[in-house]
Amino acid sequence: MSSRQPHELLADAAGKHTDERFADIKVPVLNFLDFIQADGDELSTDATMVATVFKKRHDNVVRAILKLRSQLPPDRRLIFEETVSSRQNPSGGAPIETTSYRMTRDGFTLLAMGFTGRRAFVFKLAYIDAFNAMAKYIKNQRDGLRYRCMDLELREVDSKRRGSYHGKGLGARRREKQANEAEEDALKKQAQPMLDLHDPPAGDIE
Question: Cα–Cα distance between 98 and 6 in angstroms, integer?
Fold first, then answer.
């Protein structure tokens, strides 16, 4: 997630919905790397970002989340996870820490049901696009790592084969083994963050 304030990220977003019915509503093209966070396959956003995008008061968004949590069975409440976020101090002082919530894609879907009106509709589309973009980004990363791992495996097999032929090959094999092991460690470190090793709605919010 970006270290910039949500209102700064939103100010950088631009674009309009192509439907003429929404031509007078500015719709942000959300940078998924700023607004969506990935933990393994689990994608999430937070109440601060949602409040900024939909131009809602953060405390009202949190209130709606608490209402939804109270209606959910216990095993589903983790789609909203309590956290702490910082927001700008209106007096210009140090940032203010406040209770907030991270939410999964399912949590966002439930919450967004309470946002009505045509303006809210296009902002829902923008957020859905951001979730989809992050999912695609993760898939592309995984596919790239898979290819590199398969290529490394083939090169390692070939290195072992050549190293078994003669003395000169053994010297090359030692160098290649060291390089391959270093590359394997690097690939594992890249893959680790993407592996999951350890899986009635609120009313309109003003």
Answer: 15
Query: How many structural domains comprise the chain?
Result: 2
**0.70 surpassed by pTM:** no
Structure tokens at 68: 């939804």
Residues 78 and 110 in one domain: yes
Report yes or no: 40 and 141 within 8 Å, Cβ to Cβ: no
3-class SS of residue 38: strand
pLDDT digits (tens, 9 = 90+) for 72-103: 999 999 999 999 988 777 788 888 888 999 99
Query: For residue 183, what are its two tokens?
Result: 């590359």
Within a domain: residue 177?
A: yes
Q: Which domain holds residue 82?
A: 6-134
Q: Is 27 exposed, middle or buried (0-12, 13-18, 19+ CB in 10 A)?
A: buried
Q: Which long-range contacts (CB under 8 A, 24 or more apart) does 149-154 make?
A: 149/187, 149/191, 152/180, 152/183, 152/184, 152/187
Q: What is the pLDDT of residues 143-199, one digit of tens each?
A: 777 767 777 677 777 777 666 666 566 667 677 777 767 777 776 666 554 433 233
Residue 71 domain-assigned?
Answer: yes
